[in-house]
From TrEMBL:
It comes from the Bacteria. This is Mannosyltransferase. GO terms for molecular function: glycosyltransferase activity. Keywords: Glycosyltransferase, Transferase. CDD domains: GT4_PimA-like (cd03801). Residues 157-312 form the Glycosyl transferase family domain. Belongs to the glycosyltransferase group 1 family. Glycosyltransferase 4 subfamily.
Length: 344
């Protein structure tokens, strides 16, 4: 795209939550507005404008620059104040921590701010529109035949719990393993799956978890699976009876939504947007982060009633359909872009 009116920068080569958000939203938003991403590490088929072209864009056209990181806010300011591009600067914040003075200054320069949850908005010192993330409900759906899918993936029958995502202390992978060791002692037919990637820095952490499971004699019941590609992950939610999101810190956190869209109820810690996603006991439970007994007890309570567990899965799907469709997120952002362009 040679002359977009909305630019979504991604100034980080390595895959991250921001990169994934841009990759999910831009292909939808381009249906309603001329938008392009810029920067490295993005899918080749995404509408794109090279970074090197930005200083040479027409100064007669007003555009929205939608930043999601400090570096991207700074580049937007540089393009506006030095190269004199007519930019309306928008920042989306997912952080749930007090901002540094530098970040506060950058945010103060923005024309508008979005927060991905009400909790996130509480850390900002200016007004922000809350626009929560959504997911693609066509990609994440309940299974047609859970038993057959388990057979295809070589998974056991009985009660199956999962914890997916990056493997590290912050993500609470160890809390899931400890809770699973407890649950395996309470239920004869319960199994757990840990799936995700441990970066080089966290390979020792993963090795310690595997060793703990082996010493407990549970290597056949708590399974460690390698990360799968995006097009395969929905199947791994569809085989579950319960999803555990044990994070100690999170910006937003999409995994509970992905599980719920697949008809799987959730036990999650009270971090990120989890308490704003799991809003009713009919959908799952929210517990204090780092409280492993509470995590295990909440899971045990849900697993002990198979009928209630199935009803929770159905309610979870309906809840996501009504509140977290990615088309809703995309259209709400486009409406904000159009408002900024009209105000200009």
């Amino acid at each position: 795209m040679s002359d977009p009116v909305v630019i979504a920068p991604n100034l980080k080569r390595r895959l991250s939550g921001v990169t994934a958000t841009i990759a999910r939203l831009v292909p939808l938003q381009v249906q309603w507005i001329d938008i392009a991403a810029t920067g490295p590490g993005l899918p080749a088929d995404l509408p794109h404008i090279p970074l090197g072209r930005l200083p040479f864009l027409s100064r007669k056209t007003t555009r929205v620059w939608h930043a999601r990181r400090n570096t991207e806010m700074l580049l937007g300011l540089f393009l506006r104040n030095v190269f004199r591009l007519r930019l309306k600067l928008l920042f989306t914040s997912a952080s749930q921590r007090s901002h540094t003075g530098y970040t506060k200054w950058l945010i103060d320069q923005m024309d508008a701010v979005v927060a991905t949850s009400r909790k996130t908005a509480g850390y900002l010192e200016r007004d922000a529109q809350v626009i929560m993330h959504g997911i693609n409900l066509q990609n994440f759906t309940p299974p047609a035949d859970k038993a057959a899918l388990r057979g295809k993936l070589g998974l056991p029958s009985g009660l199956l719990l999962g914890c997916y995502g990056r493997i590290r202390h912050q993500k609470g992978t160890d809390a899931f393993v400890d809770a699973m060791i407890d649950l395996c002692g309470r239920f004869e037919d319960v199994h757990g799956i840990v799936m995700g990637r441990a970066t080089e820095k966290h390979t020792g952490f993963l090795a310690e978890l595997k060793d703990k499971v082996a010493k407990a004699g549970l290597s056949d019941r708590i399974l460690f699976k390698p990360e799968v590609t995006v097009d395969q992950i929905a199947e791994w939610y569809q085989v579950l009876d319960l999803f555990i999101a044990p994070q100690r810190w999170e910006g937003f956190g999409l995994t509970p939504l992905e599980a719920m869209a697949c008809g799987v109820p959730v036990v999650a810690t009270d971090v990120g947007a989890f308490a704003e996603i799991v809003t009713d006991p009919s959908l799952g439970q929210v517990v204090e982060p780092g409280n492993i007994p509470a995590l295990a007890d909440a899971a045990a309570e849900m697993l002990s009633n198979s009928e209630s567990l199935a009803l929770s899965g159905s309610a979870a799907r309906v809840h996501v359909e009504q509140n977290f469709d990615i088309y809703g997120e995309a259209k709400t952002l486009v409406a904000l872009y159009e408002r900024l362009l009209t105000d200009a």
